[in-house]
Queue: 4 jobs
Job 1
Amino acid sequence: MKKIQLQRVAPADIEERSMEIIGQELGERVFPADQLPVIKRVIHTSADFDYADNLVFSAGAVEQGIAAIKGGCTIVTDTQMAFSGVNKRVLEKFGGKAVCFMSDPDVAAEARERGETRATVSMERAAALEGPVILAVGNAPTALVRACQLMDEGKFHPDLVIGVPVGFVNVVESKELLLTMDVPHIVARGRKGGSNVAAAICNALLYQASNNARE
Amino acid sequence: MKKIQLQRVAPADIEERSMEIIGQELGERVFPADQLPVIKRVIHTSADFDYADNLVFSAGAVEQGIAAIKGGCTIVTDTQMAFSGVNKRVLEKFGGKAVCFMSDPDVAAEARERGETRATVSMERAAALEGPVILAVGNAPTALVRACQLMDEGKFHPDLVIGVPVGFVNVVESKELLLTMDVPHIVARGRKGGSNVAAAICNALLYQASNNARE
């Protein structure tokens, strides 16, 4: 086997060292203090520095996300992958929980009956939740568009919408729509995003909420 | 609400349309026919065309992956996110299954006792599996390095290693190590990769295996 020279970094310190490297490579760029941990965590999960330019935050979005977490919010994801990526251990410390309705059999059945997409029915389920809600869309632009319609109709009042679907068909459009809405939002403008990005943003907010709680 | 002009594409046709767009944007570049669906699916999951340059295939890797799937292989992932992203429905059609040992309580317990990482113990679990195995590492370079050591010691004989960890510490090194190993591999060279990329590569192979099976 080829000898390779690994950096001697203890497993527990790898994340910290990674964040240092990301900070160095961001150089002299200045980001708002509350947004920086979100931007760095998305780069950490993708190794893609485009997110330093892509991510758009409505005023106070990070603060509102943290407040929702501290209020025991439900994080609604649009994929099982994003659900898997959210740090439920930290979320549960605040009395919150994560849910993904997309693969629920009754959501599929209702979508079939009504001739709707599962994304649409899932968003209606999300709108019916009690208590604070963070909606994290990393995959389905249809889900994001439906969520915007429900908000426009006054039927859905999420505390924060993380709009980071990825792809080539109606993805850019769905995110540009969210950017016009009067709801706290964090958006990855353009085609890029994904379930990993959605989960990373949730976790960045969760870790900031934990740090605040410790202070 | 702002009026947005959505492309009129039926939900069932969005993936096909996305793949067409990706094909158009790849332009006149020519890729081996068996590798192209893998490259396109990774771009589909990330909207990142860097993967057209990053992905490295050992000779026959796609064919060997498809053969493993048809032989009812176990796909071993290093994260729950990658596990979530693998299309288990298709995998099970071939008699295969997906597993992720990383969050098993007994893996954590054994790692603690032996002063090892969970990644190390997980790879030893993978090495002990019966039948064909595809190892898909999207996160932990320590897992990939340990897998290479076990292969070097003749203790682990995966049919294919998908080496696509993401990040900044020992990630590049772990992938360069895999590239020197005499084992079928698909590697995302450089820092980029992730659980979503690992799952996308598995799914690209699964769909090719399904298409073959239908022919």
Job 2
Amino acid sequence: MKFDEAYSGNVFIKSHPSFEESEAVIYGMPMDWTVSYRPGSRFGPARIREVSIGLEEYSLYLDRELEEVKYYDAGDIPLPFGNPQKSIEMIEEFVDQVLAADKFPLGMGGEHLVSWPVMKAMYKKYPDLAIIHMDAHTDLRDHYEGEPLSHSTPIKKVCELIGPTNVYSFGIRSGMKEEFQWAKEVGMHISPFEVLEPLKEVLPKLAGRPVYVTIDIDVLDPAHAPGTGTVDAGGITSRELLASIHAIAKSDIKVVGCDLVEVAPIYDNSEQTVNTASKLIREMILGWVQKK
Amino acid sequence: MKFDEAYSGNVFIKSHPSFEESEAVIYGMPMDWTVSYRPGSRFGPARIREVSIGLEEYSLYLDRELEEVKYYDAGDIPLPFGNPQKSIEMIEEFVDQVLAADKFPLGMGGEHLVSWPVMKAMYKKYPDLAIIHMDAHTDLRDHYEGEPLSHSTPIKKVCELIGPTNVYSFGIRSGMKEEFQWAKEVGMHISPFEVLEPLKEVLPKLAGRPVYVTIDIDVLDPAHAPGTGTVDAGGITSRELLASIHAIAKSDIKVVGCDLVEVAPIYDNSEQTVNTASKLIREMILGWVQKK
Amino acid sequence: MKFDEAYSGNVFIKSHPSFEESEAVIYGMPMDWTVSYRPGSRFGPARIREVSIGLEEYSLYLDRELEEVKYYDAGDIPLPFGNPQKSIEMIEEFVDQVLAADKFPLGMGGEHLVSWPVMKAMYKKYPDLAIIHMDAHTDLRDHYEGEPLSHSTPIKKVCELIGPTNVYSFGIRSGMKEEFQWAKEVGMHISPFEVLEPLKEVLPKLAGRPVYVTIDIDVLDPAHAPGTGTVDAGGITSRELLASIHAIAKSDIKVVGCDLVEVAPIYDNSEQTVNTASKLIREMILGWVQKK
Amino acid sequence: MKFDEAYSGNVFIKSHPSFEESEAVIYGMPMDWTVSYRPGSRFGPARIREVSIGLEEYSLYLDRELEEVKYYDAGDIPLPFGNPQKSIEMIEEFVDQVLAADKFPLGMGGEHLVSWPVMKAMYKKYPDLAIIHMDAHTDLRDHYEGEPLSHSTPIKKVCELIGPTNVYSFGIRSGMKEEFQWAKEVGMHISPFEVLEPLKEVLPKLAGRPVYVTIDIDVLDPAHAPGTGTVDAGGITSRELLASIHAIAKSDIKVVGCDLVEVAPIYDNSEQTVNTASKLIREMILGWVQKK
Amino acid sequence: MKFDEAYSGNVFIKSHPSFEESEAVIYGMPMDWTVSYRPGSRFGPARIREVSIGLEEYSLYLDRELEEVKYYDAGDIPLPFGNPQKSIEMIEEFVDQVLAADKFPLGMGGEHLVSWPVMKAMYKKYPDLAIIHMDAHTDLRDHYEGEPLSHSTPIKKVCELIGPTNVYSFGIRSGMKEEFQWAKEVGMHISPFEVLEPLKEVLPKLAGRPVYVTIDIDVLDPAHAPGTGTVDAGGITSRELLASIHAIAKSDIKVVGCDLVEVAPIYDNSEQTVNTASKLIREMILGWVQKK
Amino acid sequence: MKFDEAYSGNVFIKSHPSFEESEAVIYGMPMDWTVSYRPGSRFGPARIREVSIGLEEYSLYLDRELEEVKYYDAGDIPLPFGNPQKSIEMIEEFVDQVLAADKFPLGMGGEHLVSWPVMKAMYKKYPDLAIIHMDAHTDLRDHYEGEPLSHSTPIKKVCELIGPTNVYSFGIRSGMKEEFQWAKEVGMHISPFEVLEPLKEVLPKLAGRPVYVTIDIDVLDPAHAPGTGTVDAGGITSRELLASIHAIAKSDIKVVGCDLVEVAPIYDNSEQTVNTASKLIREMILGWVQKK
Ligand SMILES: [Mn+2]
Ligand SMILES: [Mn+2]
Ligand SMILES: [Mn+2]
Ligand SMILES: [Mn+2]
Ligand SMILES: [Mn+2]
Ligand SMILES: [Mn+2]
Ligand SMILES: [Mn+2]
Ligand SMILES: [Mn+2]
Ligand SMILES: [Mn+2]
Ligand SMILES: [Mn+2]
Ligand SMILES: [Mn+2]
Ligand SMILES: [Mn+2]
């Protein structure tokens, strides 16, 4: 007496009912309490799942179908409202479990701070970890007006954890002067404005390494992703982002986990951004999960 | 590895995980293909569930909590797009099963035509059935521009099935002249404009009888329910509708099933209507389920 | 090879194709260039027509059908953008023609300044004219920041033209202190906050007189008419406004023309206001046209 | 006593008042009852006409003005809600009449299924017909969850009618694996992702042949056309679509009819899509009508 | 070279330029990080100021003009994103300063938690303080899913600080069963559903006492205030809320400060709620400031 | 007792508090009364300031920070509603004062007609003035349906004032045939469709000359700027517009003033356009102010 959950919009389309049998785990991190501008990304994961039923199950780009990969959708982690510290602890603990079960974690934000505990967990398992980061923003602050737990700090934190030379940012078009100077001084990679072309140059250097990919949807131009907290003109097209996902899929790196963050449905008037996010996740599943 | 479904927004808040153990069954009928004006109610059930997590579990009106009733949320019936005939067959078959298991059916629309197969199924089980119908519209047409399967016909159909004197409409403010004339001629009850006061007069007459209650959200004034296909000024307040639900709860009728239809989220810009619908359903559960 | 225009949404539903044979003329005055707050009412008339196809042709309130009245929809007067002086001249000239043909003028705004030239034209034909004005605002300014052609001045202008004791305002809840003082001094009637009850008291005094009725949609509470330039809390319900229209219909005054103004679709997110406006116009047609 | 209809927004701007004297006929097909995702395209034709008054009458691209072509706007065919079978019969019958009068049919949808009866009518007149199809989707299904009358089937139907080698699809980025395989097997042309460049290669092959062009607005990227039922990231720009229209205009094919479908205003929050659609139609009129 | 700030929308209309010369201080508390449902109230204060320029400066209800009261608009307190503890400390410190200067504090939220530090500061100055609280919700939780700093806790906190018998809640229609039980046990006043009538009974009991009034905009029905985080059907009208403000103004209590919270512009599609909030604040200024 | 105005959203971010000490003056021209299609740009300047607080103060494009330039934000000129003649006189007078104080004027519209009085003022100071104009539209009409004061006329007016060979238009894709013919005949420069490449060719020719740059936001494609009165498909990306601003910054022309007009927030559903406009203005400040 229950209709097929795989097409209900309650889980990402075609999700597998068994955690144990799955290769990957999709999960939501519905947190937006530290954002400095427009909140609302807490509702991102639920809406991405909801519209995923409009997706075709086949990718013409990768010539693969969703039934070729088994993934389980665990739902949204019930994070405590207004408590960033406890929230990131819960996220880290959850991802630890996913990794302990040897599954591929695919997270949906929520604000970008949620990627910090995920990357911490990844690093515990993969000491040789590298990060590919696509974003309009550096996210290299030490704190935002005094707050170290801020959506503008996760990349700085991971640089300090795994070493800045292991972190590669693409599509960056905004940040403080100091952030760019710091990145230059410590040898962290930042490709301004562009994603696809510089990514193609970086990928061979990372061949064979375990890589976590974190995508802030605002790397897209506002024309392609109005539904996010901090829109920033001059970004890339969804076509370039799709091609970048495919470039990673065809490279020799080992993708060991990934996330897509900062989707804020309340600013997404025609549901354009959540539909695009759901297509991106399909391509991430089809292109990355079995590359581990 | 799955977070508590009862608070996920995937089911109506606090839904019980077991069909067998439940007294009532909630189900969605995501159909809007015959509407003559604005479509979109197919997305009503999913959004009502989604926002139900914002509800308190306690009703100050009825001094009851949701945990006092066990109800199962079966999800949305996967109706075939653009095929009204097959859709109503599937709905009838589903409700037959619910009734066979002796559960209370609580349906969410979808356009009002979905109530027709439900009422047919109810009548098979309850030959003494009466209908309470709250709506801005008569819904007494034989057909709409030639189409007998139309959201403007379900009340006419049920009148013909169970006899017009067993059907009681409230809050009606729009219809064709012929519809009102027909109702008068055949002795069907129509209370124009008002719901609560005439309902209080009718309820004693129905004492002890099995009654199915069908609520078209557009019985509310557009100020209270903008998110519906056919807004019609001059309606009642949500306060009056809540009080009407409570009047039924405190009456001596036996409510044997109910529905809430015509919630169309795309026209519900601030999510006002879906939030109101979800509160109405909480009150219907707490007030009506155990009255059978 | 043209589908029935009466149900096309291009004219008010059921409009008669012949000007000559009609008793009344509907026309739009798409002007919003002097509004001090939010523009957009230029698109009001077109949208009211468009949604009028969703109306029932029968009024349960008045037990009449639209086919009992012949009215012609002339479309929108092509007013020159940004030129209030020329605009009001064109409106006056148009209404002069309507009146010369002995038709009942039913205008749709546009900002409230459009009523000024209409009332001027009416007065030329009906020297004994009285005005019934429903509005949240006094509209009794001499000028707005120096501009005498402003949406906040039409009632002052008509008071000066026909004498303030012939002007009756209802539902007023906002204005300058000086406006209320002036009204009091010169004996103009203002009913604050309420419409229906004070109207019932005034109507007998106007028995037999020719009356022009001008309705600013913002007399409704913002809950009932969000789609207007200047929303003002504490207003009346659409139910009270409908009842007021009906009270006039049942009174002994001679309605010789009317308008409904300040409908601004861009602020009308769920099309609630334009749908309400279209129902109001149906009632004005059915209740007032043949009272001349 | 009627203002110039050509600039009223009731017809496409500058439409000619006489069917007989016109070379082309514009008509709306307001049907959306079989769509599997978001309905609402029934309101597309009316809104495209409404905003067409904001267009310049001159095309800088083609150096032509609208007055150089005579076209008649017949309005919207009054299709029966929820009845796809009868709807497509009415459409075919209407287009038969247009073709019998030797006019160029220019249709506006409505969902893509409306193109099927049009193409059927075209084929009766032009046995050598070829189809140019621009879309994000293959539309090559036999049925959608059991329904053969679905917006995802029209291209399959026309392939079967006129032979798949006479059908050329461009811009396709979504579909089932089986659809692409079928196309390959039967020799139907599909250009994935791109429109302009592959079109330039195909056009010479079609020189001299009668061609019907059907454009699904979702061939545009969601950034360029959010107002449609099924947005799909990774599409083309409006610039590329305009250039594609111009490439056809400058080619040696004989365009014998065309349509633009799937414009859904309710998802078009800033009216961007309807404005773009209206510009596209201007270019289709100026570039294609006299190429017959 | 600066245009008159009093009419700029940057301050509440007609604000006085001098803090020292003013009787009252308006300030914003742009915090929404602990809300459990829909965030966005951080933008409430700025939007209320912005639309305040559309207000008349005269109140017909109170027959007073804004120039009769001197009030200074201090702007928004720059609260640290995502840090509730530090935020409430900053608010308390700010209000301490306002009170030290013997000014009347009029705060704008932001989520309801912001009222907690304000009430703490008030109590330090007024040991005999009573609280009038208008809200749909009890706000009597000890914590929300473990978080004591939550928008659902401020009334519980102030009850514990000043004693529950000094706190009067009105209009309450939602809460946990335990909250209502606790209120009953400790003798705290809760008027369910209604505001005006029970308030009129309470006011004489508070005659002569210093009272802080905290208004959660969601005490209004969603029809009257869609732009808030937690809409809850069955609320009061803006007319009743205006009358309640006036009842307090005409009573013998000493209003020593007040706030209006939970206005969330992103859900306020037609700017209805912010316009209503700005009118409410005008009435609070005119009715309450000089009652100290 | 006032929080830092530079980050309040009341002025453009980081504005300097002193007119005298500043190099540039930002000012709003909130006028939209002559627009022929969709009004609403009167609210553009206020919203651009409001969202400017979301900007980074550093430009990665120009490697400069806002603190390197001193600019004063004078607020919005209080223009008289519905009176274009008086409005343009007030604008000219204001800019005269700015120029008399030897400041760089940076104006925000409002409709494009506001640029006309600014350019008049500029020409009085700079007899050798040239104009760079970026727009979708020619704006070369003599009048719009009889009105010489129209948003479609400012470029014609300035051509007549300073000579058409001194005016350079870029990105133009719409206009009347006569406008293009006139431009050609009199030797005015129009680059159709493109901005960046033709601009690079023109800039060397203008080396050393004083140039006023006027940008109509609708030069952007609707995908990049939905929030404007007259969206027109086929435009440039925000990336191309940013690059064009930077090309001017790096050229040898002397920019002596500039404006950005036609931003209409009511059509800007996700605040995409105002955020883009605010970024453009940051680049104009950093790139152009000290080039005088
Ligand atoms: Mn980020
Ligand atoms: Mn970012
Ligand atoms: Mn109904
Ligand atoms: Mn109904
Ligand atoms: Mn008025
Ligand atoms: Mn008014
Ligand atoms: Mn298609
Ligand atoms: Mn398609
Ligand atoms: Mn509260
Ligand atoms: Mn509350
Ligand atoms: Mn322009
Ligand atoms: Mn332009």
Job 3
Amino acid sequence: MSVTSHDVAQLAGVSQPTVSRALRDDPRVSKATRERVRKAADRLGYVPSDAGRALSSGRTRRIGLLLTDLENQFYPHIIAPAFHQLESHGYQLMLHTEVADNDVVAERLISNGLDGVLLATSTIDSVVPLRLRDRRLPFVYFNRTSDAVSADSAVVDPTQGMREAAEALSKHGHRRIAAILGPANTSTAVNREIALREALAQQGMSIPARYIHRGPFDTATGHAGTEHFLTMPQPPTAIVCGNDVVAFGALNAARSAGVGVPDDLSIIGFDDLPSASWPIIQLTTIAYDLDAMVRRAADLLIDRIQSPGRPLEESAFPSHLIERDTLGTVP
Amino acid sequence: MSVTSHDVAQLAGVSQPTVSRALRDDPRVSKATRERVRKAADRLGYVPSDAGRALSSGRTRRIGLLLTDLENQFYPHIIAPAFHQLESHGYQLMLHTEVADNDVVAERLISNGLDGVLLATSTIDSVVPLRLRDRRLPFVYFNRTSDAVSADSAVVDPTQGMREAAEALSKHGHRRIAAILGPANTSTAVNREIALREALAQQGMSIPARYIHRGPFDTATGHAGTEHFLTMPQPPTAIVCGNDVVAFGALNAARSAGVGVPDDLSIIGFDDLPSASWPIIQLTTIAYDLDAMVRRAADLLIDRIQSPGRPLEESAFPSHLIERDTLGTVP
């Protein structure tokens, strides 16, 4: 016979609902009682059933994290801090990835008994935020936003980083500047492009259409864009990349083509992933506090779950340029 | 009022338990009935409750994946294929990480209502496999094994890869060979060390104790080990690393010290992660089919859940050397 919460209640001298509340650290139960219940549960070897707990509380303490795909080198740097921050609040992380049909994604999130969702990917035209709002499932935008549905968000403000990048490019004599940007239907790509164009304009520069390449935020995009630029009769002398993973692809393409970085070509990333600062990479990039941004998104979501009525909050994290070895004087 | 399974049952003209079975694709319900129930559920906008489903079936269709930590660059290459393979079986992946106390890890896995666990980390002396066995929670060893408790496993056989590495090292004239190995209480580290020593012995070589460095399978270990070797009066001319992530750290340390690879020092990895073949890295490494190994582990676990009685199976994946740019002739 397995031990039930009734056995624990009897041993601790409390009611059965108090056992459930105590074991999920409900503040309505005094700390002393919570400890007494926990000791009784330990003594009996009682393990609360996850499913039973979910039915009795209406809460599963599970949070979904929606990502584009799982292979992208950017995501471990989101998954790890999100996991730990949610764990510190007593919540578990469930991974979800995008599929072709956004309606299917939304249905999976909704039918999964989640208490909330971190949207780390979302196209401007996605139905996911609409569906989550309609089903009253709390969510927070991470590194993306959508105008269609307002929600709490934790994003990067690329303004200062792009301004410093444009100043550094100008100072090093670059005039033929290219950009490898993310998908045009993501707020991240749009915001970075606007910030870059404005910053270059302040230096009296602009990016012609032929020096723009767009694609998913992955190494293949950086590789293909750089290969394409290098075949031009007059290639750019510098490439600003939508993120570090794209920049790694750009570095690879330059190396394969025998083009020296930064002697022949300068490359700038965005994110400052740990590998960007590796001695064998030394990528010049735009940095912000990615860890703090993930933790903030997790906190905003838990706050929203616990206080559905509070005003919306946008946390915008400032950015700045970190100069390493991939930006140099124009050849 | 929210729609219940009784409403669906009425519309579809079946019993309520049939609705639950049909929606979880139970083969005891005919395909035609399953489709009728699904259509009725769609029409009513019925979403089965995850918690209710778990209670009625005793299955949650959730699989835990236990990892050492989430920051390690090796893990995305496990998480992605595990996620997709389990999804194809109708199961979801839940991430779990090790904490200091193995008993706590075991308790978390057990109390989480998981149907099974992929143990992608396990020390030889861990109590986790024992606890899972005692609680009859099915599990599979991935890339690790433990003698304490036998279970299905999907592992690499390092023999052929290490043999080819030793032959290549010998051919290139290396005699002073060092190794940066994983933790001595992991089967992975132990097996790779044994295979390396045997392969070197066949070439008439051995590794003296001063040329051995041990630590977690991360870049910091590779960096520290290489830095240490490079301060020796007679440093090694080649370093065999416990995995690619360790080798990336070794490459970084060599670059920081101004030591040319492979001109002054050869470095060999293990895993052949996608970034090992990047033009800016070009790591010589020991490869195996990591994706297939992850899928195999997921399949073994699902088989075990569905057929608890079948004989144990060990899937050992063969390995081989891939020569790129970090192995060269002895200086």
Job 4
Amino acid sequence: MFRLFWADDGGLPANDRGLAYGDGLFETIRMVEQKGVLLSRHLERMVRDAGRLGIEVSRRDLANVCVQAAQRFAGRFRGEGWILKLTLTRGSGGRGYRPAPGMEPNLLVSASPLPPMPDIAGEAVDFSKVPLSVNPVLAGIKSLNRIEQVLAAAELGPSLFEVIMADHGGNLVEGTRTNLLLRQSDGWVTPPASSLAVAGVLRQWVLERLRQQGERVSERPVAVDDVLGPDCHGLFLLNSVLGFVPVRTIAGHDLPVDGGLATIFNPLETLE
Amino acid sequence: MFRLFWADDGGLPANDRGLAYGDGLFETIRMVEQKGVLLSRHLERMVRDAGRLGIEVSRRDLANVCVQAAQRFAGRFRGEGWILKLTLTRGSGGRGYRPAPGMEPNLLVSASPLPPMPDIAGEAVDFSKVPLSVNPVLAGIKSLNRIEQVLAAAELGPSLFEVIMADHGGNLVEGTRTNLLLRQSDGWVTPPASSLAVAGVLRQWVLERLRQQGERVSERPVAVDDVLGPDCHGLFLLNSVLGFVPVRTIAGHDLPVDGGLATIFNPLETLE
């Protein structure tokens, strides 16, 4: 189990390891009234990736908290929905970096308004100056170690929706808060999960849906030339809150905008 | 300036970015009554590295807090001393990863007992199974993004004092909480600051002292063979709280133990 904290009742204990070392992980779930987009996948990812960090939590306990959170918060928001955030940390204390055996995790639950939704006609993005370092033992985990994304997000501005971060070899990996999906003439391409800082739940869902429909999907490194070259038939940013965001320009280069993805798939179908 | 929080009065706000993203940094200072070991260097590092993250703080404001903290906490500890911890975060809120302009940082101040001191006859260490990823924009910064160190520290046990982490090229970089200093026949060797996750204040102090004494010091990559080979005349772990820790065995291999460093230099001289 875990100790449960509601953000509107106060914060976590001062010696929480999430604060001390970023020793934990989080999920940000788009809610419509009392139901969540891709809710099962969010909970499954948190349970699985907590396990990779050695933090034990059960899906059932998390699901129960989501029900309580929906009852507590849904009435405070109107219209398009709201955001439910779950922050799970290893717990309080321990000697320095070393976790004490059998620590009880802390779970902080908070709610916030939906952010502004992207322009379905396409958004402008740029390449980030901040490189992305992905440690294989942490690849894909939406952990609380996110300074690289914070520094890259400081490059955003009113006319810049996202910046794309590259690894030390120069391959494009992901945006600060989005995964990449590229349309080429022979199918769809996305960087492999093992290379990602955060493996998004919308990414996994749409790859499965595309394959179910017989589309060809490759998980392989994406070079700058793949995006700027003539075989790029559309670049999408994927985020479970924001949906499918077509990229209209990247670093000032126009890209073909293909609304197809958003017209084929609607993540709001997955409300549960 | 910053908002000041005392850990013994409660934690940080629930929307603090240190918790959300590890968006901040910390210092851990060995105190003897009301004075600190290498205190100036700790404060200078925090100011400089906060600046690298875009968090503004003044040395004078931090120094004032240390005086208040010493008065508040010193009477609660006896004997060898105590630990003063400063945790500085970018502040509360912002939209997602993107910091709001002009955010006021939060500073959390806490005190704890001194940990057990190492055996000056030498300690046993091992190689960590967790690789270390150092992003050049974060190199050396004692940030709150420390999951790699947490996972490596989980490998420690009652008979294992430290594990040494290597980069993806296999070079030895540092321990979970210590920097490395190797004695070879032609002088001292330590991995370069640009390769480090955390550039320790004791490391910098001892490199300067060695050079002042005319000793030869090289900052260059350290391979496993440098440590296990015949030209290793001693390996030291450096930590401003623990001092100079001679390594007696590494992964079961005996190393020559040279107490020289601890007999030449005494960080307690630097109390201020």
